[in-house]
């Protein structure tokens, strides 16, 4: 392959301009070698450890994400990109898991040029511009896949995504080998939303009332219910989406509502970051200021761990 690489280099340097040469050289080499991994250095063991250490109360998400990534990345020639959809109430860890995913695949989710995050209110704020957004999103994904087959695309706040826009990704998510002269099957897509939270929270409550341990809840109990809820929820970017109709999502990942114990762990983590791990008075004050439901049992936090940093700052 080294000889092919050098031969291509000579060919392009003699016959094309420098800009066109670089792009076409990369395209041809990637097609031949199928080895354009960018600076992709996955640390799956580190990711799994981090998920269990810092993502509280989410055994389903921990297991589903770890297993899906390991199976996908260890496959030298996957049949399709990996598509994950995260669902659950606010503050349960969905965005944190997506950030950790980028961090342990590329070393940094924030600075890697191959981890792309989209926020509807920032990138797609006007519903009447959906046709324009479709063209721009398609071009952006295509361009970044050409530059790096291992690109990661995270779509946060899917509840605020204009319906119909995300379906422009359908050609990129299936099992075809090449689209637009780019091998795109090694990419990873993550959708994040609160859609399906009612189904998830109801099952968690029913399990608790029936005396079942939280860890006894199985992924199979929730996946179909989440898919149906997402598909039928009108205020949601996946409403009646072809992505769901064509079964292009590999796993609907549920994030369970957090209990008081989980919230206390979040508070303690924030205190430790400030060098005050043992401030039990702050833990009790912050927990007491938070809202839990149902009203009588007060089992699950309304906002999960989302407001914990601000409340810790207030009480310190």
TrEMBL record:
Pfam family, one: TOR1A_C
InterPro entries in alphabetical order: P-loop_NTPase, TOR1A_C, Torsin, Torsin_1/2
Nucleotide-binding in keyword set: yes
Places the protein is found: Endoplasmic reticulum lumen
Keyword terms of this UniProt record: ATP-binding, Endoplasmic reticulum, Glycoprotein, Nucleotide-binding, Signal
Primary localization: endoplasmic reticulum
Domain of life per record: Eukaryota
Family: Belongs to the ClpA/ClpB family. Torsin subfamily.
Protein name: Torsin-2A
Gene that produces this protein: Tor2a_0
């Amino acid at each position: 392959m080294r000889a092919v690489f050098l031969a291509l280099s000579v060919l392009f340097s003699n016959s094309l301009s420098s800009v066109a040469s670089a792009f076409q050289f990369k395209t041809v080499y990637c097609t031949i070698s199928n080895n354009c991994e960018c600076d992709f250095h996955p640390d799956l063991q580190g990711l799994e450890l981090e998920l269990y250490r810092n993502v509280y109360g989410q055994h389903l998400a921990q297991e589903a994400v770890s297993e899906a990534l390991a199976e996908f990345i260890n496959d030298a020639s996957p049949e399709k990109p990996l598509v994950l959809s995260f669902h659950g109430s606010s503050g349960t860890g969905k965005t944190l898991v997506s950030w950790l995913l980028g961090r342990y695949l590329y070393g940094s989710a924030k600075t890697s040029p191959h981890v792309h995050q989209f926020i509807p209110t920032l990138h797609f704020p006007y519903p009447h511009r959906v046709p324009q957004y479709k063209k721009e999103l398609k071009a952006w994904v295509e361009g970044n896949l050409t530059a790096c087959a291992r690109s990661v695309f995270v779509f946060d706040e899917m509840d605020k995504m204009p319906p119909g826009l995300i379906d422009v990704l359908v050609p990129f998510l299936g099992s075809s080998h090449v689209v637009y002269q780019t091998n795109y099957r090694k990419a990873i897509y993550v959708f994040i939303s609160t859609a399906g939270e009612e189904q998830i929270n109801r099952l968690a409550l029913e399990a608790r009332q029936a005396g079942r341990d939280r860890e006894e809840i199985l992924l199979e109990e929730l996946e179909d219910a989440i898919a149906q809820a997402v598909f039928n929820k009108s205020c949601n970017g996946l409403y009646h989406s072809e992505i769901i109709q064509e079964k292009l999502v590999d796993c609907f990942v549920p994030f369970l509502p957090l209990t008081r114990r989980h919230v206390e762990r979040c508070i303690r983590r924030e205190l430790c970051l400030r060098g005050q791990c043992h401030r039990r008075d702050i833990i009790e004050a912050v927990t007491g200021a938070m809202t839990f439901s149902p009203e009588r049992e007060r089992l699950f936090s309304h906002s999960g761990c989302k407001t914990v940093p601000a409340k810790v700052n207030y009480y310190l």
